[in-house]
Amino acid sequence: MPPTDDRVVSAITADTGFRVFAARTTRTVRGVLGAQKLGPGLGQTLGELLSASVLLRTAMAPGLRVQCILRGANGQGTLIADSHPSGATRGLSQLPSPGAELRLEQGAVLQAMRTLHDGRIHQGLVEVPSGGGIDQAFMAYLQQSEQTVSMAGLATLIEDGSVTAAGGYLVQMLPDAPYEAIETMTRQLEQVGNLSRQLSDPGFEAEALLSAVLGDIAHELRSTMAVRYECWCSEVRVVSALATLDRSEIESLLEGGNPVEVSCDYCGAQYRIAPARLQGLLAKS
Fold first, then answer.
1. What is the pLDDT of residue 155?
2. Contacts 24+ apart (CB under 8 A), 95-100
3. SS3 call for 205
4. pLDDT at 1 over 50
């Protein structure tokens, strides 16, 4: 796998005290922000949310679809990061008006959802800590909803309107972690320092970030998984969504005999659903 590919890697320390995850999401974030046409401020926030969703899925539910939803204070605006078990990742920005900002102040919340194999949804909700960013909210979620003591760092670097680097790390303390191991990891994370500095290295990749987080701590590599920007919308999914409408709504769409045009909010793909397909939905209903 070329070193410039987005991916998430994981390891466990030799003392079995910690699981450590590191992700490079540069191209993924670049693709999402391009599709959503976001500026640096909101783009940085969504970029960090995307990295958080990848890390959360890998750590807690690698075989499930995971969504991280950030709602601004007073419900003003929503950002969604959607991470699929295949590694495909997409994002969405929903703002009350063009150019609006998402305020991470009192009342802002982070919601994490994962879709179970039987279709049920497992979810948790936490308030964004006062004065904190996505990484602080991410750690609060893991502590409160997953009962997992964790340390996380997330960053998205944007220069001249272009994403130059994005990624993050997650360190999870395992049950019965030795006291000496906790002391060692605490000192090591203090040495990691500003994550933006780590990401600004031209050779930044997931493995380099993992090494920076672990330092000289003995560990065993556990997994490597590719991550990419990709939307899984399709005409079949669009038709399936239309099939959930009431009969009267489908009949309204058929008035005039023109194809129904639908665009994907995530990637902007355009779909034209022929009247004959809509008539088929009426026949089924």
1. 95
2. 95/42, 100/76
3. coil
4. no
- 30-57: per-residue pLDDT in tens? 999 999 998 888 999 999 999 999 999 9
The CATH fold assigned to 235-284 is CBS domain Like (3.90.1280)
pLDDT at 255: 85
Stretch(es) of the chain classified as CATH 3.90.1280.10: 235-284
| Residue 25 pLDDT class (50, 70, 90 cuts) | very high
Picking from 2, 268, 267, 25, the residue whose alpha carbon sits closest to that of residue 163 is 25
Is domain 7-229 given the CATH code 3.60.20.10 in the classification? no
CA angle 86, 45, 120 (to 5 degrees): 45
CA distance 177 to 248: 60
Q: Residue-wise over 123-149: b if at least 16 C-beta within 10 A, else e?
A: eeebebeeeeebbbbbbbbbeebeebb
Of 140, 194, 130, nearest to 165 by C-alpha is: 194
Helix (H, G, I), strand (E, B) or coil at 124: strand
Length of the chain: 285
Residue tagged 């490597």 (tokens): 224
Q: How far is CA 231 from CA 83, 89, 138, 234, in A?
A: 10, 7, 24, 9
β-partners of residue 81 are 68, 91
| Residue 256: partners with Cβ closer than 8 Å, 6 or more residues away | none
**Residue 7 to residue 22: CA distance in whole angstroms:** 8
Instruction: Tell me the DSSP string of 211-239.
Output: HHHHTT--EEEEEEEE-EE-----HHHHH
| CB 90 within 8 Å of CB 230 | yes
Residue 116, phi then psi, degrees to nearest 5: -75, 165
Look up residue 271 and give its two tokens: 């779909």
